[in-house]
Write a structure and sequence with these properties.
Glucose Oxidase, domain 1; 7-stranded mixed sheet; two-stranded antiparallel ribbon; about 25% strand; RraA/RraA-like_sf; magnesium; metal-binding; RraA/RraA-like
Length: about 230
C-alpha cells in the first residue's frame, strides 16, 4: 500500500518547524524520544525555506572510485533510478547516503541533479555527503548536507529503494520525512493527528514558562510555571 497523508495533515506539518515535530513525537509516542532524527549537523544553504514534508526516496552513492559497471549498463541503472524517484508516493525527498571512506569526496548534488529531481517531484535532498553549485540550485529546492565541495569526482548511484542512515536517522523508502534548517526526522503516519491535537497544549506550556522568565518574576514563578 502506497503511504499517503491528507492535505490537512501536510498543511499542519508544514506549519511547524522540525524541533516542534520532535517535541510532539516525544509527547504522543514517547518510545520514539531517542531515535528517528539526525543527530549531527547538516549544512543548510537555504535556511529561510519552509519545512520539507515528503516521502523518502532512498539512495546510496559513491564518488571516490570509477563506476564498476560499463557506461551502457550504468546508464540503464540511472534511468531505472529516475523511474523510482518519479513514482508514488509524492512529493519526494531524496535521502542519499554517501558510502565512501572519505564521505563527501564527490558531490552527487549540483545544478543538474537538483533540477532533474525537482522536475520529478522532489522537494529537496538530505545527505551525509556533499553538495555544490549553491547559487545555481533551482528556487525552492532544499538541501541538507554533510559538507559542501567543488567536484563530483566519480559520483554514481550504488542502489536505491534500500534502507539508509543519515547522521543517525535510519530511513526506509517511503518513510515520511520532516526537515528544515535544524535537521530531519521520520514522522510515523499513524500519529500525525495525535500530534496536531497535542500542539495547543505544548504551545501553552512553553508560553507559560517563557512568560514567567521574561516577566522577571523570579525563580519561584519559573518553577511554578514549569510544574504546570
Amino acid at each position: 500500500m502506497t503511504p499517503s497523508i491528507t492535505q490537512a495533515q501536510r498543511d499542519f506539518l508544514i506549519s511547524i518547524d522540525t524541533p516542534t515535530v520532535c517535541n510532539l513525537i516525544e509527547i504522543v509516542a514517547p518510545e520514539r524520544r531517542g531515535f528517528g532524527y539526525t543527530v549531527r549537523h547538516l549544512h543548510c544553504p537555504f535556511p529561510d525555506l519552509p519545512p520539507m514534508v515528503g516521502f523518502a526516496k532512498t539512495v546510496t552513492m559513491r564518488a571516490q572510485d570509477r563506476v564498476p559497471l560499463g557506461e551502457a549498463g550504468y546508464m540503464a541503472k540511472r534511468l531505472d533510478y529516475l523511474d523510482y524517484v518519479a513514482a508514488e508516493p509524492q512529493p519526494g525527498i531524496a535521502v542519499i547516503q554517501d558510502l565512501d571512506d572519505i564521505v563527501g569526496y564527490g558531490a552527487f548534488w549540483g545544478e543538474v541533479q537538483s533540477n532533474v529531481h525537482k522536475a520529478l517531484g522532489c522537494l529537496g535532498t538530505i545527505t551525509n555527503g556533499s553538495v555544490r553549485d549553491i547559487p545555481m540550485i533551482p528556487e525552492g529546492f532544499q538541501m541538507l548536507a554533510g559538507s559542501i565541495a567543488p567536484s563530483h569526482a566519480f559520483v554514481h548511484v550504488v542502489d536505491y529503494g534500500v534502507p539508509v542512515n543519515i547522521h543517525g536517522m535510519a530511513v526506509r523508502s517511503g518513510d515520511l520525512i520532516h526537515a528544515d534548517q535544524h535537521g530531519a526526522v521520520v514522522v510515523p503516519l499513524e500519529i500525525i493527528d495525535a500530534m496536531k491535537s497535542a500542539l495547543p497544549g505544548l504551545n501553552a506550556k512553553e508560553a507559560k514558562i517563557i512568560e514567567a522568565a521574561k516577566a522577571g518574576a523570579g525563580l519561584a514563578a519559573i518553577k511554578a510555571a514549569m510544574k504546570g
